[in-house]
Amino acid sequence: MVQMTNYVGEEAYIVVSLINPKGAYEKTIYMMATDKEWYKDLEEWHKFQKKKPVNISAITGASVAGGDRAIKVFEIEDSKIDKGYTLRFEVAVEDKEYHVKDLEVPLTKANVSGKIDGKGYIRYVRMSPN
């Protein structure tokens, strides 16, 4: 679950990415954004997507407004847990500050169940294992 802060402005575009132990993008896990025209506002992710284009239509959903929450289900392979991988929540809001690392979560057994605070538009993310 992603809980947003009570910011004023347009809905946030959020991309959740798997970051490998070397700090590089490995995979797009989920995209909370529907209008491809604005994907470029997620600057760092967009550079990765342009280098290794992948069809993300199956892993996209609605953007999220200030104060709202979104509940999403996605899978993380067990082989990524406790191996130095991180989930990155990157957030862009039209005409507002861009947060490449609004929230980062090291993928450890301890972190996959709990609440992690964001640094920008995301108030917190709550995760729970299946």
Average pLDDT rating: 93
The description of the largest β-sheet is: 5 strands, mixed
What's the alpha carbon Rg, rounded to whole Å? Answer: 14 Å
End-to-end separation in angstroms reads 13 Å
Order of helices and strands: EEEHEEEEEE
Structural overview:
The chain has 130 residues and is mainly β. The chain has one domain. Helices cover 7% and strands 36% of the residues. The protein is built from 1 helix and 9 strands. The protein has a 5-stranded mixed beta sheet with strand order 4-3-2-6-7. Strands 5-1-9-8 form a 4-stranded antiparallel beta sheet, with no helix packed on it. Strand 6 and strand 7 form a beta hairpin.
What's a concise summary of this model?
The protein has 130 residues and is mainly beta.
Keywords, please?
4-stranded antiparallel β-sheet; globular; 36% strand; 130 residues
Give the topology, please:
Layout: E1 2-4, E2 13-19, E3 25-32, H1 43-51, E4 60-61, E5 69-70, E6 86-92, E7 99-106, E8 114-117, E9 122-127
Parallel strand pairs: 3-4
Antiparallel strand pairs: 1-5, 1-9, 2-3, 2-6, 6-7, 8-9
